[in-house]
Amino acid sequence: MQKSHSNLKIFITFIATLLLFSPLAMPSSAAAQTKSFYWEQFDVEMTLLENGDIDVVETQVLNFSGEPFTFGYGSILTGSAGNNDNITNIQLREGDLNYVESSSNAPGTFELSRSSSEVRIDWYFEPALGRRTYTFSYTVKGGVIVGTLDEGSGDQIFWKAIPSDHPGRIQDSTVTIHLPKGVEPQRYIDDGTYLIEGLAASNANLVETSASKDGRIITYTLLEPLVPGQAFEVRVQFPHGLLDIPTPDWQARQQNADVYGLIGLVLSGLLFLGGPLAVLALWYTRGRDPETGLIVPEYLPEPPSNLRPAVVGTLVDEKADMRDIISTLVDLAQRGYISISENKAKNHVFTLVNESKAGLRPYETQFLKDFFGRKTERKLSEMRYKFASKLPKLRNMLYDELLSEGFVERSPDKVRTTYVVVAALIGVVAVVAFIALIAILPEEASYVGCCGAAALGITGLFVGIVGRFMPAKTAKGAEEKAKWDAFRNYLKNIEEYQDMAQAGELFEKYLPYATAFGLDRTWIRKFATVPHTPIPPWYHPYGYGRPIYHGSSRPTGGSGSGGSVPSLPSLDSAASGMAGGLESMSAGLTRMLNSTASTMRSTPPSSSSGRSSGGFSGGFSGGSSGGGGSRGFG
Fold first, then answer.
1. How many Å apart are CA 594 and CA 614, to the nearest integer?
2. Which of 179, 266, 319, 463 has its CA 20 to 30 A from that of 482?
């Protein structure tokens, strides 16, 4: 069965003249509250013409009480909103008085205004109290839903004779439909009765239906009063082809919308599923590291190659981040280029103790240049807001290290940036497609534009997310990463593979790698409880002497026999004279790393990058019942 077509009901709304036009004669609140009305009778007579037009006559008998009513208005939905092509021949009379169309607002006149979705009528009359009868007549163009020759189908009138938004009680109502000569309603197959229906307030028992002997006159009678919020709908269906009725424009648009909608939803669904799947397939084929077949043990107790910590950290996660920069600082200090001390004001002081650039990688030379400039000593407080602008170049130089070593074919950062740009372009296309589809598609199919644009937008979002994981290594890079992963596992779980009492010398030796792996905190905590762990010779917290070495040479540690180089003090011995002991010493080292990372990446508050904080870690189905518009009395 096809969906319903709504009747285009003019509903009268009256507004008292004194309320609207006479502020000096405003009624009292009590008087205003006594104004009321109801319908004694609301009859609708509909005549179907052979060309498919419907002549409608509404006879409304109202009973007014309280202050007089002098003004009324009503609206009729048109187009897709009202399931009709147009409303014409609007006439109004009260008894023998025929209202004339005019914009004078004088009693006995009415004024029409039209928009793309409704026709509005405003009319004016002499003050009215008691019983008044108003008769409206108009012609509905394209008000018949045209069916097909298929079994069970047919042409039909589906009419909302009284919409649910009527503002008062309707005591009685009769709706009559007249069909042209030779046209009678279809019959139900099971019992042969006419295919006619009446429905009030979603209850068929409130309406009695009957038909004349030839079936051309169908009557629907309301069996009990209709209260506000209850609608009165009627329906009659007759065989398709008995009348030469063209398909209404609104129905053709709806049919096209259904086709567009089906196609659009299918395409949107394919894009919604296919887009992300295509992105996943792209990652599977191009974003994964190649299988090398290399068998690597669970752990390696020493670095598998001579790669510097910052390059290792960049290789493992394909990101040159802050912990890689800090690992460079620690690595250069461990190799005798920098010493770090803490003054009385708890400010860390960095000293360049070896100005030779021999043996340094390009990014290390650049780091020293950016960090110290032309000075040989820097306070950490001097670095605030001054080093963050140097980070992009250092990161790019670390990516260049991966390229020069043959670990990647393209800079991971450039790969990620490419996919971000592609995701943004897809987002722009989604917005443009949404605007274009809304403009091109029929109004009824505008939701297709939303679905298509949403599916495209989700695909773009997926590209942006998956793009973060698209950088891939070469076979050489994958093998190298696997080895360094085994070394990282050793550092992470060193107490499982090593007697910690004998591993103290590894603390400072592998601290730069632990920093690059994001294990610096746990690494320091592990050795904070191990007696006789040598303190890093390049780190001197406040309260513990002066730096042990300056210049290009540094002690090697240990208790060498007869050597002139003194043994390095341990964490516990160095901390013995400090408040808080060993834990305080290790906490101070961690705090130094955290504060250095925070300061080096800090930017002014007005900068778009924000202020750095904290440490680091790393076919057609029919129409529908419409109508509506403004309703009410006042």
1. 7
2. 463
**DSSP code string of 355-379:** ---TT--HHHHHHHHHHHTT-SEEE
- 569-610 pLDDT, tens digit per residue, is 555 555 444 434 445 667 778 888 888 889 888 888 864 444
The Cα diameter of the chain in Å comes to 133
What is the rounded distance in angstroms from the CA atom of residue 304 to the CA atom of residue 325? 21
For residue 134, what are the contacts with CB-CB under 8 A and spacing of at least 6? 12, 59, 60, 62, 72, 92, 93, 94
Q: For residues 310 and 362, what is the distance between their CA atoms, to the nearest angstrom?
A: 12
Q: Spell out the alpha helix ranges (H) of 68-122.
A: none
Round to whole Å and give the CA distance between 8 and 55: 11
The residues, ordered by sequence, that sit 6+ positions from 628 with a Cβ below 8 Å of its Cβ are: 6, 75, 77, 81, 82, 163, 165
> 585: which 2 tokens?
């010493």
DSSP structure class, residue 534: B
- DSSP letters along 202-217, please? TBGGGEEEEE-TTS-E
Residue 222 region by backbone torsions, left for phi larger than 0, else alpha for psi between -120 and 50, else beta: beta
Whole-number Å distance between alpha carbons of 608 and 195: 71
C-alpha closest to that of 267 among 437, 422, 427, 444 = 437
d(CA 608, CA 345): 31
Q: How many CB atoms lie within 10 A of CB 83?
A: 30
Q: What confidence tens digit (pLDDT) does each residue in 98-142 have?
A: 999 999 999 999 999 998 788 988 888 899 899 999 999 999 998
- Has this prediction a pTM greater than 0.70? no
Distance CA 612, CA 600 (A): 9
Q: Is 71 left (phi over 0), alpha (psi -120 to 50) or beta?
A: beta
From residue 58, give the alpha-carbon distance in Å to each of 7, 46, 389, 537. 12, 9, 79, 102
∠ CA 420-423-428, rounded to 5°: 125
